[in-house]
Amino acid sequence: MIRTILTTFALVFLAELGDKTQLAVLAMASRSSPWAVFVGAGAALLVSTLLAVVLGCTLPRFLPTSSTKILHYIAGSLFVIVGAWTIWKA
Fold it and tell me: DSSP string covering 28-42, please?
């Protein structure tokens, strides 16, 4: 379990570094109460993560295993496409 926690933390932490959400939070904190921005951004991340976990636990119950594999391939492909697009635009 601790391995899953650490892997998830590392994945989300690295994925969020320097993304547009972090830059928006940085800009908001420079103009507003840092604690209010921290609480708002933290709550938003918790809610969006909760939604992802609920969907991740619920979808496999209603979809056959083959469909879940297809979803994994689609998600992986989208990450590769977005990564390539990001490199292309850099």
Answer: HHHHS-HHHHHHHHH
pTM for this prediction = 0.65
Convert the pLDDT of each residue in 72-88 to its tens digit.
889 889 989 988 988 88
HSE-up of residue 63 (Cα within 13 Å, Cβ side): 14
pLDDT score of 90 more than 80:
no
CA distance 38 to 13: 15
In a domain, residue 83? The reply is no
Domain count, the chain: 1
Please enumerate in sequence order all residues whose Cβ is within 8 A of that of 41, keeping only pairs 6 or more positions apart, or say none.
Answer: 21, 25, 28
Domain-located, residue 69: no
**Nearest residue to 68 (alpha-carbon basis) of 79, 77, 76, 59:** 59
